[in-house]
């Protein structure tokens, strides 16, 4: 991308979008444009078309979405499928109608079948039933993948779709009901330590396995792929190793310095047993993750202490 190209980061305040903005600014891209959801509701086609007509955008990082953990997905299926279909459909179509040079769509590893062989290869998409707890969201993401591919085939656009594994880092969501596991455990262990609680409750059995990629690494991969990848095939983005939720809980416990017990609430869903991504294609394109879980966890906890503690307590 030319350093003066106009780059729109949709979802710039989120975990992923804010990391992409930091990465682009660090690399000297000066012509960034972004809007909050209050300024520009991407579920509203009229607002989106007007924005794209006005702005003459060259590149789009589509990191705006309705996002949440396993319980949020399970409780608000209509919100997850509707908002994500609307956001991605409006942005991808407006990008085409306004001659955007290239667009990167963020999918998720939840698009793969619940019981697909591990590690997950890109070709496993649509080869089996999805995990029920997040099927509506996954269907929306699969529709986004197919929309990018279809516009490329029919209109000759250059829209790429990337499938990140579970992410964490700065500007994460620490709400205990709607967040993902890693930020939730950071907050739970921190508050248990501060309030001298005897135990911390971890959802599910603790036996599922998850892979965790630090958000700054993901942002680096997205900028790298925007410059170095074209094609209709999806690209997994991950670290290539995973951890049991129970072990993750012990790692967060140590990082936070909490000395109480861990209890498992098996009334909460486990979700898919494992979703480790195969990163062969990503590595062959020339990119590898660099932040270890231990290192990333320390950074995420420090960010939480410096930025999120007062907010979540208010
Ligand atoms: N977090 C994770 O573990 C993973 C995330 N992903 C994908 O990465 C992308 C970003 O996720 P993440 O950064 O975690 O999500 P966040 O919830 O942190 O950020 C989502 C962003 O989307 C914006 N947004 C939501 N609804 C609208 C709307 N109607 N109009 C305009 N903007 C809207 C929000 O803007 P505002 O703040 O202004 O309201 C927010 O900044 C998503 O596509 C997600 O599916 C993929 C794999 C894992
Ligand atoms: C990124 C990915 O994220 C989601 O899928 P998920 O990975 O299953 O989501 P999760 O991070 O919420 O849970 C992972 C595991 O962790 C366990 N768990 C323990 N204790 C807590 C806890 O306190 N909170 C949460 N949220 N989970 C907990 C939880 O029971 C589960 O076994 C979907 O959005 C999906 O669509 C998607 O794309």
From TrEMBL:
Belongs to the NAD(P)-dependent epimerase/dehydratase family. Fucose synthase subfamily. Its EC number is 1.1.1.271. PANTHER family: GDP-L-FUCOSE SYNTHASE. The gene is fcl. It catalyses: GDP-beta-L-fucose + NADP(+) = GDP-4-dehydro-alpha-D-rhamnose + NADPH + H(+). It comes from Fictibacillus iocasae. Catalyzes the two-step NADP-dependent conversion of GDP-4-dehydro-6-deoxy-D-mannose to GDP-fucose, involving an epimerase and a reductase reaction. Keywords: Isomerase, Multifunctional enzyme, NADP, Oxidoreductase. This is GDP-L-fucose synthase. NADP(+) binds at residues 11-17, 106-109, 141, 164-167, 180.
């Amino acid at each position: 991308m030319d350093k003066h190209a106009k780059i729109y980061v949709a979802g710039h305040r989120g975990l992923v979008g804010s990391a992409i903005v930091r990465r682009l600014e660090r690399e000297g891209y000066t012509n960034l444009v972004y809007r909050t959801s209050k300024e520009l509701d991407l579920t509203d086609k009229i607002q989106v078309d007007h924005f794209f007509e006005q702005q003459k955008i060259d590149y789009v990082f589509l990191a705006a979405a309705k996002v949440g953990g396993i319980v949020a997905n399970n409780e608000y299926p209509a919100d997850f499928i509707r908002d994500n279909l609307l956001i991605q459909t409006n942005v991808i179509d407006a990008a085409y109608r306004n001659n955007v040079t290239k667009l990167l769509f963020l999918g998720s590893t939840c698009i793969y079948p619940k019981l697909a062989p591990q590690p997950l290869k890109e070709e496993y998409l649509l080869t089996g039933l999805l995990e029920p707890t997040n099927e509506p969201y996954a269907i929306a993401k699969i529709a986004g993948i197919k929309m990018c591919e279809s516009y490329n085939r029919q209109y000759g656009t250059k829209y790429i779709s990337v499938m990140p594994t579970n992410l964490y880092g700065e500007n994460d969501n620490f709400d205990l009901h709607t967040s993902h596991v890693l930020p939730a455990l950071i907050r739970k262990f921190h508050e248990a330590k501060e309030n001298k609680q005897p135990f911390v409750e971890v959802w599910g059995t603790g036996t599922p396995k998850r892979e965790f990629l630090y958000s700054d690494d993901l942002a680096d991969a997205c900028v790298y792929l925007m410059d170095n990848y074209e094609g209709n095939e999806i690209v997994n983005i991950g670290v290539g190793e995973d951890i049991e939720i129970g072990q993750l809980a012990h790692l967060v416990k140590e990082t936070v310095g909490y000395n109480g017990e861990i209890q498992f609430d098996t009334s909460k869903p486990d979700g898919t047993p494992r979703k480790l991504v195969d990163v062969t294609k990503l590595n062959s394109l020339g990119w590898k993750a660099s932040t270890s879980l231990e290192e990333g966890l320390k950074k995420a906890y420090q960010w939480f202490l410096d930025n999120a503690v007062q907010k979540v307590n208010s």
